[in-house]
Each structure stands twice: as structure tokens, then as C-alpha cells.
Specification:
The complex is a heterodimer of chains A (about 550) and B (about 130). By secondary structure, chain A is α/β, with parallel strands linked by helices. Chain A has a single domain, classed as TIM Barrel. Chain A has 22 helices and 10 strands. In chain A, the strands form 2 sheets. Chain A has a 5-stranded parallel beta sheet with strand order 1-10-9-8-7. In chain A, strands 2-3-4-5-6 form a 5-stranded parallel beta sheet, with helices on one face. Helix content of chain B is about 40%, strand content about 20%. The chains are: A alpha/beta (about 550), B alpha/beta (about 130).
């Protein structure tokens, strides 16, 4: 072991070495006067055992599958099974999305991830005037159960796991999924998947909110409570730092604001009378894989330790599963360049590798053309192959948490942990994440970081290959994927037919019951299930809740 | 320059898209360059944008869309501006806009379209050269 005597002699040697190097540097300077990562953490020239005292090992790191889970949530990690390779996809109509899912499953993808169009995400039917221009654009358009039936045609829901990026109307889409699964003959208790269902980051970073925070939190805890009994293997929320980072935050802010949101959900669920060890194990998380490779690896490790600590010390969870932060990762869309798009393949590969070395449970790799348009089939395939190459060829999956013990990585892990905890304490003092968001604090922190990042690029302090250095003359890319504008017309026609054919009386009575329930404190899930079964549309259901709960008015954080 | 009237800009997010990193960074840069910027916030209909532009008496409308709805929403804003008889505003677009869509947008009256990788310096300089400030 590294004893005191060794430590003193290393400290002495290091001092001498530093003096000598400083002398040299004064004549021949390093590339920059100071090295600082995106989180503002100063990076030293050299890290040694002095930065990583081994006596803290058990407390800081522990063993994989054991508290505080810094080294991973499972004891064998990828020696047991690889992460779930899950590409976010879905566009235009349910038919076309269904085709893409079956293609991806054929290519060896192991889980589905559904992208919805914006009207669906904000609870509007395709025939709403506000939806003009948006139907089927960034994901699939879903108006009713009929569309979800088409979406999963010939895909056995009991066998796949499905992630749905849906927030404000998450309860409605989950209800549709469960009903379709039941119609296939599946047992809801066997269903595996995730709904994003993370409204707080919608207010601060992503923008697809509908209702104000209070009723939104109630819908979320209704889902927690319903699923604990009826769909016990479902991940009821994916508390997302991804979009916070995409909106411009630093790595430290990403995990700080995400876990602060996590604390708010746990608080809300406890207030609703739920048992922390009943819903705690179903909380899942979603992080971003950005460019600073080692900072990212350290970030995931710090996030695991931080959440374990919060659940154990703050919320007194007893079940180890409540303390484990299981997370999905997606590579950072905001780092992709429209210039020399093939370079993005390389960026994505490094980002994906950082997520794997950071111990992710599932992964989406971005396609090279995403700064230009929706991804083409070829570029999606390369993105998926990137994951397969990491899994099967690089060897990094053969041992657990291979970068542990790197003096730098351990030091960064601790530093990120401390700095994120400082943010969380500050947010606690403000009254918690919902208040910090309503006051615009979180949004301002993020936009300031985004502005600083852009300034660095414009001042050439941050080099983006192909953008502000190493530019080349290039032809504009062709064959970009386009969404057929006829999708809206088809979707509107389907709606018209649906409304003509369904039993209007039962829709009316289900919606009236939902309205009543929303005014009281009944769990909304069974009421929404009933409305969905009778083919009430997404827009109709969300309109009922808009009527009772009102709509969120965002705060302006500029100026 | 000296006592020249400040350029007034409406920074706008038409449609349902929630990506506001770009528009906020541009808005902050324009403010720091001495312009007066009014930000609409998310989810504005073309009607709301045109009303705000007229009410705030801006010289420039800078809109950002990353959802692909620009092909409908940008021309719609131009159409409503024309209906109101407004033809002296500089109207700019930004976001993820495929090159092949740009001619049609310009045809509709969008003066310039700024894609990914554009610097705020370029946008500031463009506005300073083209905005019609009396």
C-alpha cells in the first residue's frame, strides 16, 4: 500500500519535478496558460497518488454492485451482458415508424426508443391548427390508440423493451401502450420499458410542458403509484440531464440539476404517501455523452455516488435498488457539425466510448447527419455499428470500470461530485428544484454556460475541427431525409374516420369521469386507461386536463 | 454612429419547437452588441409573432426553428406581415434548415437564413449592415 513514507518521498520528488518543468515551460510555454474543462475545473499538468489517497477507497468507490456504486451498479457489468443498444427513432406516420423499428430489430438492436412529433408531445391532435407544419416532423404522430396499434404491429411487446420520449402526456401514451400490449395478449406485469415523464427539465430545458408544476407532479406520482402495482417492471421516469446539457449546461450542472430534479420527484412521491423503496428502484436517469472524454467518464461515476448518497442519507432508502442510478446515455447532438458531417462519426464513437467506460445501462449513438436533418437509414446503421464495435471489438467491456484508479479520473470524479453537491445545496436553499426553475435560476445558469461556450468557439479558444479550424471546401450533402408533408393530411383523415366510427357516448362518459377525477384526488391512470380504450384522442384527454389544471406560463430569463 | 437609434430586434420561436439554446445565445450576443432585443419565448404562432413585431416596432425579426416546421411557419409570418402592410422589417431565419429549402424561404421574403456553425459575429454584422434604422 501507499504509506506515509512513500507519500512524503513522492511529494518531495514531485516538487522537484514541478520546479524543473516550470523552468522549461517559462522558456517554451505549454499550449495554453491554463487548462480548464467545461465545468470550470482547473486541470493539473500531472496527477499522482497524492491526488487519490487510497485510504478513502471503500467510502469513495466501493465494489461494483455495492454502495456507493461509483464503480457500477452491477457486479459483473458488461462481462455479464452488454448495455442495451437503443436508437431513438420514429418519424412521420405510425406505419413508417413501425417499418424502421422492425429494420432496427433486424439489425441487432435490442430495445426500441420511440420519438414522437411535437404536437403529440404537447398534447395536440394532428388536426389542431397549431400542429400545422409540425405533424410527423421530429417523430411519429400519435392521435389515438389506433395509431399505437399500428406503431407496434407485429412487434411482441412482452419481448422487447420500449423507451418512449414523452413527458407532459406520458400517462396517456403509457396507457395506450399497456392497452395495445393487453390486446396482443401480453401480461402488463411483464412489460419492460421507460417513459421519460420528467416534466421539470421540460420547464428548464426542453420546452414540451403543458400544465403547471403542481398538477404535473401529481400526474407523475399517480403514474409511480399505478405502475408499482400494475406494471412493476416499467421505469416510470427517466430523469434527464441530456436536454439540460444540450441546452448548454456544463457537466457539473448536468448532474447537479438532474439530481436536484430527482430529489423533487422523490419528495413529491413521499408527500403523496408512497414508500421510497417501492418507487425508488423504478427511477431511471438519462445523461449526455459530450466531448471531454475523461470528464464524461468521471461524471457518470460521480452521478452514481451522488444519487446513492442522496437516496441513502437523505431519503433513508433501505433497498439497495433504490440507491442505484441506472441510466441511459445519448451522445451529444449539440456537438455535431453541419460542416464535414463524416467527422461526426468519430465524435460519436469517442462519446459512446466514454458512456461505456462510465458504465451506462443503455446507449443511443447519434447519426452523422443530425446537424443537417433527420438521420438517413445508412447513417443510423453506422451509428448502431459504432456501439457494436465498442462492445465486441475494443475489449473495454472485459473488466468492470477499467478507468478506476487513474489518478486523474478519480480526482475528477471527486471534484465533480463536490461541485454538483454544492449546486444541490444551493437549490435546496432556494426551496428545491421546482422553485429554482420557476424563478428562472436554472435556466439562467444554463444559458450563461451556453453563451460562454459559444464565445469560446468564436474567440478560437475552443477548436471545433472543420468549423473554426481545418476547414475544407466541400459539397453540400445530398439525399437528406425529408418528411412527406402529406402525413398531416393522412393523419387528419384517420382522425375523422376514427371519430365517425367510435362510440361517442362512451368517449364522452370516460372524459367526464376523467374531468371529475382530475378535480378530486383520484389516481388518474385508470381513468386515462378507460378513455384510451374507448379511442378518446390524445388531444381530447389533454384538453380535459388543460381545462382543470390550466397551462404553464414560462418565465422570460433574457434581459 | 454615436447617437444613432438602437436597432430593435424581435427574437422569436415560432411553432412548437422547444430548442431555445440557439435563439437565446443569439439574443444575448445582439444585446451585448448594443441592440435592443425582445424575446417572445417558446411556442409562438405566426400571428403572435407579427403582432409582437408591430407592437414593439422592431427593425428585425430573428426566428429560429429546429423542428423542420420552417417550410410552413417562416412563409406564414411573411404572409401576415404583408397583410399588415409591413414591408420594411428585416426578417431572418435560423436553425436546422436544409440548403435546398432556402431558395423558397427567400422567395417568400426571408432575407437571410443562418445555419448551424454560424457565428454570432456574422449575425451581428449582417444585421448592422442590413437593418433599416431611420
Amino acid at each position: 500500500m501507499f504509506n506515509e513514507k512513500n507519500q512524503a518521498s513522492l511529494a518531495g520528488a514531485l516538487e522537484k519535478w514541478s520546479e524543473a518543468v516550470d523552468q522549461k515551460v517559462s522558456k517554451r510555454p505549454e499550449r495554453k496558460p491554463e487548462f480548464v474543462n467545461t465545468s470550470g475545473i482547473p486541470i493539473k499538468r500531472l496527477y499522482t497518488p497524492l491526488d487519490d489517497p487510497a485510504e478513502n477507497y471503500a467510502e469513495d468507490l466501493g465494489l461494483p454492485g455495492e454502495y456507493p456504486y461509483t464503480r457500477g451498479v452491477q457486479p459483473t457489468m458488461y462481462r455479464g451482458r452488454f448495455w442495451t443498444m437503443r436508437q431513438y427513432a420514429g418519424f412521420a406516420s405510425a406505419e413508417e415508424s413501425n417499418k424502421r423499428y422492425r429494420f432496427l430489430l433486424d439489425q441487432g438492436q435490442t430495445g426500441l426508443s420511440v420519438a414522437f412529433d411535437l404536437p403529440t408531445q404537447i398534447g395536440y391532435d394532428s388536426d389542431n391548427e397549431i400542429a400545422i407544419g409540425e405533424v410527423g416532423k421530429v417523430g411519429v404522430a400519435i392521435d389515438s390508440l389506433a395509431d399505437v396499434e399500428t406503431l407496434f404491429q407485429d412487434i411482441p411487446l412482452e419481448k422487447v423493451s420500449t423507451s418512449m420520449t414523452i413527458n407532459a402526456p406520458a400517462a396517456v401514451l403509457l396507457a395506450m401502450y399497456i392497452v395495445v400490449a393487453e390486446k396482443q395478449g401480453a401480461d402488463p406485469k411483464q412489460l419492460k420499458g421507460t417513459i421519460q415523464n420528467d416534466i421539470l427539465k421540460e420547464y428548464s430545458s426542453r420546452g414540451t410542458y403543458i400544465y403547471p408544476p403542481k398538477p404535473s407532479m401529481r400526474i407523475i406520482t399517480d403514474i409511480f403509484s399505478y405502475c408499482a402495482e400494475e406494471v412493476p417492471m416499467w421505469n416510470t421516469i427517466s430523469i434527464s440531464g441530456y436536454h439540460i446539457r444540450e441546452a448548454g449546461s456544463t457537466a457539473v450542472q448536468e448532474i447537479a440539476f438532474t439530481l436536484a430534479n430527482g430529489i423533487a420527484y422523490v419528495d413529491a412521491a413521499l408527500k403523496a404517501g408512497l414508500d421510497v423503496d417501492k418507487f425508488g428502484p423504478r427511477l431511471s436517469f438519462f445523461f449526455n455523452a459530450h466531448l471531454d472524454f475523461l470528464e464524461e467518464v468521471a461524471k457518470y461515476r460521480a452521478a452514481r455516488k451522488l444519487w446513492a448518497n442522496i437516496m441513502k442519507e437523505r431519503f433513508h432508502a433501505k433497498n439497495p435498488k433504490s440507491m442505484m442510478i441506472r441510466f441511459h446515455t445519448q451522445t451529444a447532438g449539440c456537438t455535431l457539425t453541419a460542416q464535414q458531417p463524416k467527422n461526426n462519426i468519430v465524435r460519436v464513437a469517442y462519446q459512446a466510448l466514454s458512456a461505456v467506460l462510465g458504465g451506462t445501462q443503455s446507449l443511443h449513438t447519434n447519426s452523422m447527419d443530425e446537424a443537417l436533418s433527420l438521420p438517413s437509414e445508412e447513417s443510423v446503421q453506422i451509428a448502431l455499428k459504432t456501439q457494436q464495435i465498442i462492445a465486441y471489438e475494443t475489449g473495454v467491456t472485459d473488466t468492470v470500470d477499467p478507468l478506476a484508479g487513474s489518478y486523474y479520473v478519480e480526482s475528477l470524479t471527486r471534484e465533480i461530485y463536490e461541485r454538483a453537491y454544492d449546486y444541490i445545496r444551493k437549490i435546496d436553499e432556494m426551496g428545491g428544484a421546482p422553485t429554482a426553475i420557476e424563478q428562472g435560476y436554472v435556466q439562467r445558469e444554463i444559458q450563461d454556460s451556453a453563451y460562454a461556450y459559444q464565445r469560446e468557439i468564436e474567440k478560437d479558444e475552443r477548436i471545433v475541427v472543420g468549423l473554426n479550424r481545418f476547414q475544407i471546401e466541400e459539397e453540400k450533402p445530398k439525399n437528406l431525409l425529408r418528411v412527406d408533408p402529406a402525413v398531416r393530411t393522412q393523419q387528419v383523415e384517420r382522425l375523422r374516420k376514427l371519430k365517425a366510427e367510435r362510440n361517442d357516448e362512451s368517449v364522452k362518459s370516460a372524459l367526464a369521469a376523467l374531468d371529475q377525477g382530475a378535480r378530486g384526488d383520484d389516481n388518474l391512470m385508470p381513468l386515462i386507461m378507460e378513455a384510451v380504450r374507448g379511442y378518446a384522442t390524445l388531444g381530447e384527454i389533454c384538453d380535459v386536463l388543460r381545462g382543470v389544471f390550466g397551462e404553464y406560463q414560462a418565465i422570460n430569463t433574457l434581459g | 454612429m454615436g447617437k444613432a437609434k438602437k436597432i430593435r430586434v424581435l427574437a422569436a420561436k415560432p411553432g412548437l419547437d422547444g430548442h431555445d439554446r440557439g435563439i437565446k445565445v443569439v439574443a444575448l450576443a445582439l444585446m451585448n452588441a448594443g441592440m435592443e432585443v425582445v424575446y417572445t419565448g417558446l411556442r409562438q404562432t405566426p400571428t403572435q409573432i407579427v403582432e409582437a413585431a408591430v407592437q414593439e416596432d422592431v427593425d428585425v425579426i430573428a426566428m429560429s426553428i429546429l423542428s423542420g416546421a420552417h417550410d410552413y411557419l417562416f412563409p406564414k409570418v411573411m404572409e401576415l406581415l404583408k397583410e399588415k402592410g409591413v414591408n420594411d422589417m428585416l426578417v431572418l431565419g435560423g436553425g436546422i434548415i436544409p440548403d435546398e429549402d432556402i431558395p423558397a424561404l427567400k422567395e417568400a421574403g426571408i432575407t437571410e437564413v443562418f445555419g448551424p456553425g454560424t457565428t454570432t459575429t456574422e449575425i451581428i454584422s449582417y444585421i448592422e449592415h442590413h437593418a433599416a434604422v431611420q
